[in-house]
């Protein structure tokens, strides 16, 4: 289930058709249909709003074009931000700022969601960098008090063994062509992903998992950016680790494709509502 080539089309389509909700905060970019409805009030069935956190090179409308509307259709109040976009970086592309600079953007966004919905906590669903940067928010910016569940798609708690920033950007550019326009020096987050980086060491000191947050990790054996893919395994009592191919052996989705994958969507839904979990039909 590979989707090379479709993301650029999705970005163009959403840039034309998606518009922010009238009540949205000023810094919120376009989002997929139903996402960032600031009048949404959580239901009794789904009382916790969901905040979607995109990966490196992604954005609210592109990374979540599939999963965002699906969660809305399931009755969730769903919100998504685009973060970490320095000047000169193309629109609909984010995650390039150093992650300690992006984390306050997430913190402020979550506060806006809580204020708008009246909820006490949110659930986070992150993809790629959206599984790393929020860890800084949880550990150092008080986010653990505001987050109930954290569903991490293709996480990399132990970093990636890719050799350098250029290799990382080149591999992402294979999936998201616009990333090929980003010079190395504009990607402050890139070097932070590497195994053993100062950022990863700080993030994992005392253990990657934050007490009180319910973690679910979803990995794919065919991840070409998180190497090895087992870097996404979280060894903690409050974590459930899932490898996509252990559920659906014939699913060959790689790093980007998982964000548009119905099997992964089912796993996310089950993680958000474990009391009503449904079988994943492969």
UniProtKB/TrEMBL annotation:
Originating organism: Saccharopolyspora oryzae
Name of protein: Alpha/beta fold hydrolase
SUPFAM superfamilies assigned: alpha/beta-Hydrolases
Keywords on record: Hydrolase, Signal
Pfam families in the record: Lipase_2
InterPro entries reported for this sequence: AB_hydrolase_fold, Lipase_EstA/Esterase_EstB
GO MF entries: hydrolase activity
Signal peptide: 1-23
């Amino acid at each position: 289930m590979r989707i090379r080539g479709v993301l650029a089309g999705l970005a163009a389509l959403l840039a034309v058709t998606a518009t922010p909700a009238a009540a949205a905060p000023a810094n919120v970019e376009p989002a997929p249909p139903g996402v960032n409805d600031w009048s949404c009030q959580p239901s009794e069935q789904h009382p916790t709003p969901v905040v979607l956190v995109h990966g490196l090179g992604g954005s609210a409308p592109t990374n979540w074009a599939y999963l965002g509307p699906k969660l809305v259709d399931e009755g969730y109040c769903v919100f998504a931000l685009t973060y970490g976009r320095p000047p000169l970086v193309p629109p609909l592309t984010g995650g390039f700022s150093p992650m300690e600079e992006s984390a306050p953007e997430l913190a402020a966004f979550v506060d806006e969601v809580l204020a708008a919905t009246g909820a006490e906590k949110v659930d986070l669903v992150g993809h790629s960098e959206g599984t790393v940067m929020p860890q800084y928010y949880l550990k150092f910016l008080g986010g653990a008090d505001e987050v109930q569940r954290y569903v991490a798609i293709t996480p990399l708690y132990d970093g990636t063994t890719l050799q350098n920033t250029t290799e990382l950007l080149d591999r992402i550019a294979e999936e998201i062509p616009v990333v090929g326009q980003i010079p190395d020096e504009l990607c402050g987050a890139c070097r932070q992903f590497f195994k053993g980086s100062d950022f990863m060491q700080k993030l994992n000191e005392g253990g990657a998992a934050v007490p009180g947050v319910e973690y679910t990790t979803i990995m794919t054996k065919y991840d070409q950016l998180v190497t090895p893919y087992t870097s996404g395994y979280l060894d903690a009592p409050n974590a459930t680790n899932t490898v996509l191919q252990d559920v659906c052996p014939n699913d060959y989705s790689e790093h980007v494709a998982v964000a548009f994958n119905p099997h992964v969507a089912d796993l996310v839904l089950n993680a958000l509502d474990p009391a009503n979990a449904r079988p994943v039909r492969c």
